[in-house]
Amino acid sequence: MSDKMKVILDCDTGSDDAVAIMTAILSPRIELLGVTTVAGNKEINFTTDNTLRVVDMLRSKVPVYRGCAESMVAKLLPSRHGSYSGMTGVTQDKLDEKGEVISYHHDRLPMPDPVSREQPEHAVWWLIDTLMKSDGDITLIPTGPLTNIGMAIRLEPRICKKIKQIIFMGGGFKVFNATSASEFNIWADPEAAQIVLTSGVPVTMVPLDATHQANFTREDEAELRAMNTPLATAVADLVDERIVAYNAYQPQELHDSAPIHDALCVAYLLDPEVLQDVRFMRVDVDISGGFADGATLCDTRAYPDRPRNCHVALGADRLRFSRMIIDLIRTFR
Ligand code: RIB
Ligand code: CA
Question: Which residue has a Cα nearest atom 2 of ligand 1?
């Protein structure tokens, strides 16, 4: 019997999702059962294509399942998503010195076109089927909007007893990006996030407060580039792209650096010490459609009036995180 940790990743791939997938594939301690895709950073066609690119680049056979193209409810009301600039308060794209739009994620990751194909089954049905047949030993790591997981729970609530834990990237305690009160993944599908948080499954939330303390720097980029392998160069390029975008739109406390949000969830599974100041709290999502739509409301009171439901990470160990990722990338030739 394998003593590897069984994991399913659910991603809106995306540059930081890409590094999360790489980390899971490269770690000898993880058995990655599949990657499901969701719309978020990009439309579903792009997030699925990008996921296949990453899997192919690592010569992996991990199956990829296409999931939901729209949020469960939020997009039904134009007023809820209408004010979103997509750039954290910046209403106009900025251009680099070549006149190109500075962006966190391009439609297609800078990797060869995928050769492998997505599986014919829908991600949500595959999730339900896989979880129901499991021994309750699978960890879900969602790194995009929680649409697929929320849908799966609504369709087959018995999966909740079958999920070992959910470690998701999303939310904010004091740090936000999509609006003044919300983080992108939760804002994109607040109802799905509330379903997950009230599911009874053990949940760990890795919010912006933690991921903005786990940034990659120019030194990290240089170390990757010096490896001179196609994978390390691709990751160095992603790091560079993200640093340029963060400098333009969300300058970080650590000068000339950028978070690789999603990879922190996988790193936490491998080494819990990468997260710091993890507190067990009551967390609910604002689904009211008002100014705080998509906010993760963390109850810090000594006596919350609803039961605590979520471990929330408020910090991270940057060097521990970057060392793990860089060392894993070094193993692949
Ligand atoms: O807010 C950061 C999150 O939004 C990351 O998961 C990023 O990939 C985007 O999905
Ligand atoms: Ca993501």
Answer: 184
